[in-house]
Specification:
The protein is 30% helix and 35% strand. The protein has 389 residues and is an alpha+beta fold. The chain has a six-stranded antiparallel barrel. It has a four-stranded antiparallel sheet with strand order 3-10-8-5, with no helix packed on it. The chain has a four-stranded antiparallel sheet with strand order 7-6-4-9, with no helix packed on it. Belongs to the membrane fusion protein (MFP) (TC 8.A.1) family.
Length: 389
């Protein structure tokens, strides 16, 4: 019993001592915590700032497109015959009117000669009847023959003249048929694959080869309908230059001009079809090739440019925080006019503000701020504003 009582007394003493220690330390920590909380609410936020840059900002539209020839013709014979000679090679550049294929023309030549002979025969008949009619008119004036004989000769002459006209038309038809045996280039361009050889039997459905015009050439691409207004305004103002970037030629650029804007927006995709025409004497552009295009449709003169990551988007609109002279943050509403790369042209600022870039996520209007240690690149974010990506 004595040991039990002693244990109880020791436990009670430990409990009392622990309680006294807890209350003493709690009382000492409360003032420190309160002081820390009071000071923490007023601690300035570290921020980095940039000043807006005034400069001309080009509005550049970019799109991926494909190269399309202005004209491409597949060559077919217009008659059934055999190939007599092939005058061109695959991949050869030909000029309009250049001889390409010759077909067997023996039958057509014979038909032309036959038609020519019939014309000569009919012309002789007409001349003979004209002489007879002249003599008959002389005899009629002397009352040696009747009027009926003269009328008969006149009818015969009219029929002969009609027959001559018909034979002349037949001759022209035979000459047209004969011209089908010689195939010439309908346009200047590059010859495609040739699938026939001398002696091949060809028909109107047979494809001999194709010719594709390469200079000049078009690049076809699409733009969102939101760009249509600026695109039309630029076209009305004059020629719109277009740059084609050749990824497979070490970044080579080819200059062209806007040539066509479609008359309707695709209601499914919300895109509008556009074409640009390029000179292609060096054949840098090839039909079917994918190309990245750029065009400047407008230039914003003396625009204010700030980094895009300084702009905050809220339900009430877009705003930025600026660092005031008293080291407080102030919110200013801005309008993003044009975004390009990491920068944006805005309105709503005078240009003298210090726009907060880093640290803005913890700010409220009136918050205390201080400049963070300046990094070498901190003030260079707007330096490239005139170089759209």
């Amino acid at each position: 019993m004595k040991k039990t009582s002693l244990a109880i007394l020791v436990g009670a003493a430990l409990c009392i001592g622990g309680g006294i220690w807890y209350f003493n330390h709690q009382g000492a920590d409360k003032p420190r915590a309160a002081a820390a909380g009071k000071g923490g609410g007023q601690a300035p936020t570290s921020v980095s700032v940039v000043r807006p840059v005034r400069q001309d900002v080009p509005i550049v539209l970019q799109a991926n497109g494909s190269v399309a020839p202005i004209s491409s013709v597949e060559l077919h014979p217009q008659t059934t015959s055999t190939i007599a000679k092939v005058h061109i090679r695959e991949g050869q550049f030909v000029k309009q009117g250049e001889l390409m294929f010759t077909l067997d023309a023996r039958a057509e030549s014979a038909n032309v000669e036959k038609a020519q002979a019939q014309v000569l025969r009919d012309r002789a008949s007409v001349l003979d009847l004209e002489r007879q009619l002249k003599r008959s008119n002389d005899l009629l004036s002397k009352n040696f023959i009747a009027q009926g004989a003269v009328d008969t000769l006149q009818s015969q002459l009219d029929a002969a003249r009609a027959l001559l006209a018909a034979d002349q038309a037949a001759l022209r038809s035979a000459q047209v048929d004969s011209s089908y045996t010689v195939l010439r280039a309908p346009l200047s361009g590059r010859v495609g694959a040739i699938g026939v050889y001398p002696g091949s039997l060809v028909q109107p459905a047979t494809s001999l080869t194709s010719i594709t015009q390469l200079d000049p050439i078009d690049v076809v691409f699409t733009l969102p309908e939101s760009s249509l207004s600026a695109l039309l305004s630029a076209q009305k103002a004059g020629e719109v230059p277009v740059t084609a970037l050749l990824a497979d030629a070490g970044g080579k650029q080819v200059q062209g001009k806007l040539n066509f804007i479609d008359n309707a927006v695709d209601p499914t995709s919300g895109m509008i079809k556009v074409k640009a025409r390029f000179g292609n004497t060096q054949t840098d552009l090839w039909p079917g090739q994918y190309i990245n295009t750029q065009m400047t449709v407008q230039t914003l003169k003396d625009a204010l440019v700030i980094p895009q990551n300084a702009i905050i988007t809220t339900t009430a609109g877009t705003l930025v925080y600026t660092m005031e002279a008293d080291n407080t943050a102030k919110s200013r509403k801005v309008t993003r006019v044009h975004a390009f790369g990491p920068n944006a042209a805005v309105t709503g600022l005078s240009g003298d503000e210090q726009v907060i870039v880093d640290g803005k996520q913890n700010l409220r209007p009136g918050s205390k701020v201080r400049l963070a240690e300046k990094r070498p690149e901190a003030m260079d974010q707007a330096a490239t504003a005139g170089k759209p990506a």
